[in-house]
Specification:
Elements (H helix, E strand, L loop, with lengths): L1 E5 L5 H4 L2 H8 L2 E5 L1 H9 L5 E4 L1 H5 L7 E13 L5 E4 L8 E4 L5 H14 L4 E2 L8 E4 L9 E2 H9 L3 E9 L7 H8 L5 E5 L12 E7 L2 H16 L16
Helix pairs in contact: 2-7, 5-6
């Protein structure tokens, strides 16, 4: 048995005990990117994984999945996790560049900008100037647009980033207990923007959420609808929870 988890400090509160918990159950752990976790699960190369809503939605009509309604990762309002900056001197907003232009986070940033500002961004290569850059923010620098903040303003719900998803044919008994044991104690981490002492605006605030809730489920439904509307999913998948649906 093998499960897949994404690398990166953002996901550690969900996986801080994963090695010991899985070793005790004879389960192998595979570390890769968030987007690759979804690909591995879809290809039946792992039985369960932490995947994005896009990874979950990719299985609709192909694989029967269940979401564990426990530890998960969402962003609510300003979180300094991902965003976009405008290029100096740009007079329009029609192009972008990004280190990972096809990633879930990049995709959701572009979809959110499309919904809020009625723009369709085209990707340009490094040899061409872009109107904005999408990606992770530098540690000490705030971006013009914060994904969590812009999404919350649009959907009035958190944006889910990573969910524990299991194939229904997987032989992983008590998987909901496994993911609870693997997670750390944090239910959420408040975030406050660092601004200069005499800044012309108050610090933006939000939270990184590490537990499932009704509002997270609402955000997931909104994200799946947006992905379908922009034809990144073939149909809108139902939100099916492990032990409920």
């Amino acid at each position: 048995m093998t499960i897949a988890i994404p690398d990166g400090s953002l996901f550690e509160p969900l996986t801080q005990n994963i090695e010991a918990v899985c070793a005790a159950r004879g389960i192998a752990v595979r570390r890769t990117s968030l987007d690759d976790c979804g690909e591995l699960l879809l290809a039946n190369l792992v039985e369960a994984a932490l995947v994005s809503p896009l990874g979950y939605g990719a299985g609709v009509g192909r694989v029967d999945y269940r979401i564990v309604g426990g530890p998960c990762l969402s962003i609510q309002d300003y979180t300094h996790v991902y965003g976009a900056d405008f290029s100096p001197g740009s007079s329009e907003l029609s192009s972008f560049d990004a280190d990972e232009p096809s990633s879930y986070l990049s995709t959701m940033m572009r979809l959110t900008m499309s919904e809020k500002f009625d723009v369709e961004l085209r990707q340009v290569d490094a040899s061409q100037p872009a109107d904005c850059r999408i990606g992770q923010p530098p540690a000490s620098t705030s971006q013009a647009l914060d994904l969590g903040e812009e999404w919350f303003d649009l959907a009035e719900a958190p944006l889910p980033i990573a969910l524990w998803v299991i194939r229904v044919d997987a032989e992983l008994p008590d998987f909901d207990a496994l993911v609870r044991e693997a997670a750390g104690p944090d239910a959420e981490r408040p975030v406050s923007e660092i601004v200069p002492m005499h800044a012309d605006h108050a610090p933006r605030e939000g939270a990184i959420l590490y537990r499932w809730s009704e509002s997270v489920e609402e955000g997931l439904v909104a994200a799946l609808n947006a992905l379908y509307f922009h034809q990144l999913l073939r149909e809108i998948p139902a939100v099916k929870l492990f032990g409920r649906d």
